[in-house]
Amino acid sequence: MTSQRTASIVRNTNETQIALTLQLDGTGKPEITTGLGFFDHMLTLFTAHALIDLTIQCNGDTHVDGHHTVEDVGIALGQAFAETLGNKIGLRRYGHFTLPMDETLATAAVDFSGRPCLVYNVVFPSSQVGQFDTELVREFWQGFANAAKCTLHLNLHYGTNTHHIAEALFKSAARALRMAVETDPKQKSVPSTKGVL
After folding, report:
1. Under 8 Å CB-to-CB from 115, ≥6 apart: which residues?
2. DSSP string, the chain
3. Per-residue b/e over 45-62, b at no fewer than 16 CB within 10 Å?
């Protein structure tokens, strides 16, 4: 695997201006400002459970709604993961985690396969949590999976509290990603019989 485990992404569009830095081998330190309080909360706990260091400064058109901000941050974060993983030599590649959050249970499974795919089996009981549209959770992870070029499965087994469901998804994804991006001392090449990912 390449020794580069950090990335800096700048993404500017007519809808959002994003500056993001990622350190994969971090301590769980967040510095996050997106203009969406609940989204900041999800990204902060994601950072802590993934044990990465993550800085995000996003100025988006939140006067319209949160869609562009959430989707574009997902894209930028996915780009950062792809960049930090480099040629993937020595990568564990796969990760999975089932996480309880009070009455909620969620599972995330990830494969840094080079093939973008999101499977999302989640239904929220409410369309909003605070001022945040819960449909944007899917938009975030779709943007992430596409840009990171990974396969990501998110499954809600059960749950009744909207906040808990969102939190369980972000935490389980963080733990699964943490596992997948670890280096495997037994893996001396690309973790694929194809020889490339």
Report:
1. 149, 150, 151
2. --S--EEEEEEE-SSEEEEEEEESS--S-EEEE-S-HHHHHHHHHHHHHHT-EEEEEEEE-TTT-SHHHHHHHHHHHHHHHHHHHTT-TTB--EEEEEEEETTEEEEEEEE--S--EEEEE---SSSEETTEETHHHHHHHHHHHHHHT-EEEEEEEE-S-HHHHHHHHHHHHHHHHHHHTSB-TT--S-SSTTS--
3. bbbbbbbbbbbbebebeb
- pLDDT of 3 higher than 60: no
Q: Is the sign of the CA dihedral 88, 20, 139, 45 positive or negative?
A: positive
47-104 pLDDT, tens digit each: 999 999 999 999 999 999 999 999 999 999 999 999 999 999 999 999 999 999 999 9
How high is the mean pLDDT of the chain? 96
Q: What is the mean pLDDT of residues 24-42?
A: 97
